[in-house]
Write a structure and sequence with these properties.
3-stranded antiparallel β-sheet; Ribosomal Protein L22, Chain A; alpha+beta
Length: 213
Amino acid sequence: MPKLGPKELHVWLLEDASKPGRCWQLLSPDERKRAVRFHKKCDADGFIVRRAALRQILGGYLDVPPETVKLAYNAHGKPFLNDALGSLEFNVSHSGSVALVAVTRDHPIGIDIEVITNDFPVTEMAPEVFSPGELARFFQLPADAKQIEFFRTWVAKEAFLKALGKGLSIEPNTLEVNALPVDFIKTVEGSASAISMPTCLPTKISHLHFSLS
């Protein structure tokens, strides 16, 4: 596990998060109950793999077995470390079979990724996501650019709201991307990704690839 210095940010990429293998044994009882509630096996498998990966990553930083990592959730569903080692901050996001885990110290972090799809009705959804000024600029874009701009705007606002721990209790169309403490990052081709650290600008961002052990 690489060392994580002050104000540094590690972004872990987990690809093909669909094969659970021996991941089940790393989950807590509550996580196992959550897994079996999924209606589709592919959704359950994805959750099992992502949660096992998160536990292995956090356990590596904390130098504890992954199954002993204690996770809790705030009122809006954001997970956090529920123990005395809470200086470690993290956030997770997934889209399709790809997942990201962002880890830093002492400062809240939010991360989001979305695979850009051509069949998503961005024009219909735009008023829910864009502020009035952003919406006016959005409708001036050519059709192919609209698709990319929608997903970029969405991940930026989602990352910021996740960093605040507010989820969608704040409506995205009340925010302006250009005024947010957000950085776009390159992760997987054909996707949009962003991070937000509202209380601190990271001095170094390291991109790491995670393989389940």
